[in-house]
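Practice problem 4.
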């Protein structure tokens, strides 16, 4: 890792970002900003502009040439579990069994300070090595897992949203908190971390079944008492889970309504999955300005279902993309986009590279109300940018050579690329290699 601060840096390559939201199915939307052979100018960690490659800035700029390579905003993973790297690719279960069999034992280890520290470092370095510079993260129920994660993010200058997982029932005793202690811990963590540099706190309800009604009410109070904090949880991922929620909360109209009744549905809510929703749920999500973190590789791996992206789009719900490791099978947002395409193909729909890339950059940033800071190459934004090879290996190189349009190139990249294609990740103007 190279953390030496470079004050004025120019990155020369093919710049790609978005100036608006691409329409579904449009392979040539005007909001795709493609600037072939341009220098991206970075000063004191922020993007200050761009200029054609043949007009380089003066000698007081440190120049990095990436000829023929893509320069994009760093990806934003809106739902991922830091302790679950340890259980990625675990065989043979659906959601509820998978939690009991694989996930809860792995998360139990994060009460140990050393495990939490090493796990946080391993996790964030892995995100960066996959071209993800910002994330919305579940650590564990242990306060120490949150402290170590935020510390490691701060050391890397990353924009990170995270919070202590709330669980006070239907989980092993080592992973259960209670309402009073959890409220004290969350309050302390919010005061310590929320708004510190690039860090933000998220009230983190694992999912409705693992919190008592009293704890859900407490989580809602935290959101109300601390405006500006996020809220993250899981929603309607799997049919058995939806039925379980119905039996636990018979008074609620729907799974989403359990959260809405507890003041957990707002413009800073990030709901993972949201597969099994109805139109009333989608209208409520859109009204609140909440977002769905679509996690296709997880949904396929755990057999949870096929997300109806079009229905959310038509209802006005913001959709971002997420790996959901360890239910998901890769930290790569490119692999995630490729899986999202296949999920839509199973629904008879076509996901363009533009909609997918937008959801992983500008779309996620706007849904998080961070559009001025991340997700674009606009002047003023933080210089969180990644440099990519379009093609690695003979198959991808040949495919790239035969691509006749920008969309065809980028779609093949999205479908074939992974972390091997990453050349450099820059976080706030500092290169991490
Ligand atoms: Zn998850």
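Answer key:
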């Amino acid at each position: 890792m190279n953390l030496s601060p470079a004050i004025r840096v120019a990155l020369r390559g093919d710049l790609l970002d978005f100036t608006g939201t691409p329409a579904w199915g449009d392979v040539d939307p005007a909001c795709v900003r493609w600037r072939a052979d341009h220098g991206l100018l970075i000063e004191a960690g922020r993007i200050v502009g761009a200029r054609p490659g043949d007009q380089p800035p003066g000698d007081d700029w440190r120049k990095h040439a990436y000829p023929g390579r893509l320069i994009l905003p760093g990806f934003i993973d809106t739902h991922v579990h830091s302790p679950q790297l340890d259980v990625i690719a675990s065989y043979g279960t659906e959601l509820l069994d998978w939690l009991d069999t694989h996930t809860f034992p792995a998360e139990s280890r994060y009460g140990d300070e050393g495990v939490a520290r090493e796990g946080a470092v391993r996790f964030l370095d892995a995100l960066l090595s996959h071209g993800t510079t910002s994330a919305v993260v579940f650590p564990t129920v242990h306060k120490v897992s949150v402290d170590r994660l935020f510390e490691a993010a701060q050391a890397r200058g990353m924009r990170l949203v995270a919070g202590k997982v709330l669980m006070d029932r239907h989980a092993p005793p080592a992973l259960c908190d209670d309402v009073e202690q959890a409220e004290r811990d969350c309050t302390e963590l919010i005061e310590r971390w929320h708004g510190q540099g690039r860090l933000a706190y998220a009230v983190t309800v694992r999912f409705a079944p693992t919190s008592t009604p009293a704890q859900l009410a407490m989580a809602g109070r935290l959101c109300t008492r601390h405006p500006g904090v996020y809220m993250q949880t899981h929603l309607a991922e799997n049919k058995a889970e939806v039925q379980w929620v119905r039996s636990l909360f018979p008074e609620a109209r729907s799974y989403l309504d359990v959260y809405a009744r507890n003041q957990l549905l707002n413009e800073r809510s990030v709901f993972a999955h949201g597969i099994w929703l109805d139109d009333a749920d989608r209208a409520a999500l859109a009204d609140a300005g909440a977002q769905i973190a679509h996690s296709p590789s997880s949904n396929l791996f755990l057999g949870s279902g096929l997300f109806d992206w079009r229905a959310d789009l038509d209802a006005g719900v913001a959709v971002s993309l997420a790996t959901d490791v360890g239910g998901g099978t890769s930290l790569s947002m490119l692999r995630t986009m490729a899986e999202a395409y296949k999920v839509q193909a199973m629904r008879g729909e076509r996901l363009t590279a533009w909609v997918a890339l937008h959801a992983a950059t500008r779309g996620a940033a706007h849904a998080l109300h961070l559009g001025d800071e991340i997700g674009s190459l606009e002047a003023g934004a933080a210089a969180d940018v990644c440099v990519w090879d379009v093609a690695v290996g003979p198959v991808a190189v040949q495919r790239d050579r035969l691509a006749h349009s920008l969309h065809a190139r980028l779609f093949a990249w999205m479908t074939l690329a992974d972390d091997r294609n990453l050349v450099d990740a820059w976080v706030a103007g500092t290169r991490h290699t």
